[in-house]
Write a structure and sequence with these properties.
two-stranded antiparallel ribbon, 122 residues, 2 domains, transmembrane helix, Laminin EGF-like domain-containing protein
Length: 122
């Protein structure tokens, strides 16, 4: 059943997943495939993993697989590639540096203007 998770093919306990979209296994198909001698699940852990959608793992499919990150509770999203993250970080750093330089330049101009004003008043 989509949206539900079970720890073992022999267990009668079925739990509702916190994120129903993460639990995509069809229990009856999984049970059939696990009952065959060549089945894809020779352990409860494999059965558990087969129930989870792409990017999800663990109990109730509530854990993000490596390469995925939680975007909100129980929702995993594929991470951006490292070069993209580095480029975004560099852009943020450059924008912040430009802001600081602009702020310092304005402060210097304001101080020069005040000093010029004081000289006129004397």
């Amino acid at each position: 059943m989509e949206g539900y998770w079970s720890s073992d093919p022999r267990s009668n306990q079925v739990h509702r997943c916190p994120n129903p979209a993460a639990c995509q296994g069809n229990r009856s198909i999984l049970l059939e495939s696990c009952s065959s001698s060549n089945g894809p699940c020779t352990s409860a852990g494999q059965f558990s993993a087969l129930q989870c959608g792409s990017g999800y793992s663990g109990n109730l499919c509530a854990v993000c697989k490596p390469g995925y990150a939680a975007t909100k509770p129980f929702t995993c999203r594929h991470c951006l590639p490292k070069p993209t993250l580095l480029a975004m970080g560099a852009i943020v750093l450059l924008v912040n540096a430009a802001f600081v330089v602009s702020l310092l330049w304005r402060l210097q101009k304001q101080l020069q203007w005040r000093q010029g004003l004081k000289a006129l008043m004397l």
